[in-house]
Amino acid sequence: MPFTWPPFEFNPGDFSLQNIQERYLDFGIVIERFDTIIEAVLVTILLALLAELLGIVIGLFVALVRLSSFRVFSFLAQAYVDVFRGTPLLVQLIIIYFTTPLIGLTFRSLFFAGLVALTLNAGAYVAEIFRGGIQSIDKGQMEAGRASGLSYAQTMRHIIVPQAFRRVIPPLTNEFVMLIKDTSIVSVIGLVELLKATQDMRNETFNGTPLIAAALIYLAICIPLIYLANNLERRLNRRTA
Questions:
Q1: Which of 167, 91, 188, 77 is nearest to 123 (CA)?
Q2: pLDDT tens digits, residue range 172-209?
Q3: By the 8 A CB rule, do 183 and 194 touch?
Q4: What CA–CA distance (Å, rounded) separates 98 from 138?
Q5: Contact, 62 vs 80, CB < 8 A?
Q6: Peptide bond into 210 cis (omega under 30)
Q7: CATH topology for 39-240?
Q8: Taking a C-beta distance cutoff of 8 angstroms, is the pair 30, 37 a contact?
């Protein structure tokens, strides 16, 4: 039965401030495994950073193809964006890692498998960010470039894309924040990033503190980036006003 009532069972005997402190705020458990936490955080940051950089390359290329006059390539670029934006990242990761051996492709590295999934997913979202940024540039910029003797490709490279790139920095920063949080999904294939490392600690200690620590670390990484993106967006709005 998918739904039962009451939806949970509450034991008043286990609910006390002391028990909450022991089960969720015993950070000595985390400090004892500090080296493991640091390694996991570095894996998380490296995974997100590489996926973002590669996603920017893929996303810019896909955005330019989508805006091109070649209908076949534009359709394929649109299909890529729709597929990776329209399906859950978890499903994509499972397909990429667990089913590709059926067609002869086996990932020897958990990190690389996670990177491929995150990059392909990020590329689709970044493509839409770049497409919006490019289309926000006044059409007169393209006309001026073509009138000065530049080709379409040269105008895009030297005039349109540089202006668009400045405009998409805030949403790209927000995308990076989402990517950092999405790295936790890679734990399902066994990669020891931040969530996986703290889950293992929870299983060993039967204590929820490691997961609380993971949440706090995610906050410490993401909150400054969120405020940075908001600040960049305000500056951009002032310049374009």
A1: 77
A2: 999 999 999 999 999 999 999 999 999 999 999 999 99
A3: yes
A4: 46
A5: yes
A6: no
A7: MetI-like fold (1.10.3720)
A8: yes
